[in-house]
Amino acid sequence: MDVYKTSFCVIQSHRKEVSCCAFNKEYFVTCSGDKSIRVFSAKDFQEKTYSPLDHHKYGVNCVTFNQTGNLLASASMDGTTVVWELQDDTEPIIRHVFQHSDSNTVQVCRFSSNSVMLVSGSSDGAIAVWNLEQNKKLFQFIGHPDGNINAACFTPCNDFLMTGSGVGDVRVWDLRYKQSVCACILQSEAHEGVSGYGVDCICFSPTFHAIGDGQVADTYLMATCGQDNLVKLWIFHREIAIKAEGKRNYSSRCLEKLHELRGHSGPVSHCCFTADGQKLASSSFDKTVIVWNPVTAEQLFVLEGHTAIVTSVCFSMDAKYLASTSYDKTTIIWKLDARDDLVLNHADNAEVDVTAEALVDLTLSDGAVDQPKAVLQWSSDDVLEWLKNELGLAQYSDAFKLNAIDGEELLDLNSDTLSNELNVGPLGHRNKILRGIEKLRSRPVLPAAVLRNQTAGSSQPVFVPATAPPANRIFPTITATPKLPIDDKDIPDEYLCPISREVMLDPVIAADGFTYERSGIEGWFKRGKNVSPMTNQRLVSRNLIPNQALKTLIMQLLENNK
């Protein structure tokens, strides 16, 4: 039976959702809807003195390193892709600023393996390929006119480009001709299913194709993930793609589906391989991270700890660490197969020695962990005790008990549910409960860390302690920004516009049933969008209905925080 050990640290540096992260040998970077990029040491995860990088005007959607690790690219909602050079501990230098679009966001960017080209994909369905040596655009084409470009990746041989969009298709582009038409297209329903349509990420295994002696491999292992809750493994046949030259009978055969990896209960936002190709990680809207064996298609283990959508995952170069980012504004660094030689510095430079005895050994066991439960594992009785002792609102115990509100249900409660389903009438009581829930969500230590070892043939979880144990039980929690005058943690997520992630002052309900800031959704329409920003499904109308109830709650919150 495989034995996995893990410990973790939580980085609380961004003021809004953390969108993406990336490793090279020396650095670890994150980006966020707060417009910033933060740079940390990949060894002790201390933030660099020159961090954050604040070049972008709007939120940053994607960060990625080139293969050698000396260049970092960032894609932003401001329509640009910026290439940075990181060296030693001096402030990064901006090498290139590529303007993709004046009115559309850049969703994704990726380097070619030889670091000569960079691809950027936009929300208008356009794909741009840039030459880094010549500092110019090689070509641009509308690759997916009906959907956002959420995923893009060069093949390891750099002859082809894979792109995926919000309508669920994957296309293969032949780059050898350096022109704005693709010689080989595969348009398939790659990710279409119960949660909707959309390809969210594409990546290639770094080792599956390796044959040595400088020869070019004929086949590559590719992973994709999307809105259908699945991770899919494909074999890309290079020789078939070369022979295609636009012929559909060849185009449809260059990608061969190998496996469907099922385990997530929500859309899969991101996936990545380790440098040796032995593991594949995926992140999901279901708030979990799953690590797979891409060769056997087996699920190795599940990591739970975030309290909101997990947006991305990334392995360190030596596969010792796995990072995950989330809408809960945190980044979690998981240390896999932990050893007893780890020494990290606290944010206040106090050394923390993590010994072998202190590390949590996450193996399947018949014995229970003698620690307080994680919030996600609370029973209904635990919730009732919290409601009575922590909040002094025992009068609602019967309603909570009748509706079987356990820990997981508690964290999902909102003002409407409290009022309509649980009969919490007074606004002050609802706000008190919501503030209490936010405190549970924003604990400095993970509310739960679950590891399920599926290879052992059992689903019994063993939990990392939920409440703050002694400092030598985990990595230190790192806080890299000063406390804001108004604490973001006091603002429920439903008060934030899904587009801008800012507090809504004029909330309106669109035809998709979601609430947006009026200026945000109207700006979306002005850019020619006729699909939902949340589901990517076509909107039946552009009518907007004021959400007066939510506006009242938001105004009350702002008044209380004056």
Q: Can you walk through the features of this model?
A:
It contains 9 helices and 37 strands. With 562 residues, the chain is mostly beta strands. It has 3 domains: 335 residues, YVTN repeat-like/Quinoprotein amine dehydrogenase (Methylamine Dehydrogenase, Chain H, 7 Propeller), CATH 2.130.10; 67 residues, Transcription Factor, Ets-1 (DNA polymerase, domain 1, Orthogonal Bundle); 70 residues, Herpes Virus-1 (2-Layer Sandwich), CATH 3.30.40. Strand 35 and strand 36 form a beta hairpin.
Secondary structure elements and their pairing?
Blueprint: E1 4-12, E2 18-23, E3 27-32, E4 37-41, E5 60-65, E6 71-76, E7 80-85, E8 93-99, E9 106-111, E10 117-122, E11 126-131, E12 136-142, E13 149-154, E14 160-165, E15 170-174, E16 192-193, E17 196-197, E18 199-204, E19 219-226, E20 230-237, H1 238-244, H2 248-251, E21 255-262, E22 268-273, E23 280-284, E24 288-293, E25 298-304, E26 310-315, E27 321-326, E28 331-336, E29 342-345, E30 351-354, E31 360-362, H3 380-389, H4 397-402, H5 407-411, H6 415-420, H7 427-441, E32 450-451, E33 462-463, E34 478-479, E35 507-509, E36 515-517, H8 518-526, E37 545-546, H9 548-560
Parallel strand pairs: 1-34
Antiparallel strand pairs: 1-28, 1-31, 2-3, 3-4, 5-6, 6-7, 7-8, 9-10, 10-11, 11-12, 13-14, 14-15, 16-17, 18-19, 19-20, 20-21, 22-23, 23-24, 24-25, 26-27, 27-28, 29-30, 32-33, 35-36, 35-37
Cα end-to-end separation: 57 Å
The CATH topology annotation of the largest domain reads as Methylamine Dehydrogenase, Chain H
**Fourth CATH level, the homologous superfamily of the largest domain:** YVTN repeat-like/Quinoprotein amine dehydrogenase
> Main sheet, how many strands, which sense, barrel?
6 strands, mixed
In angstroms, what is the radius of gyration? 24 Å
CATH architecture call of the largest domain: 7 Propeller
Structural domain tally:
3
Q: Output the CATH class name of the largest domain.
A: Mainly Beta
Low-pLDDT stretches are: 179-185, 246-250, 338-372, 443-486
Task: Count the DSSP helices.
Answer: 9
What is the helix content? 10-25%
Beta-strand segment tally:
37
Mean pLDDT: 77
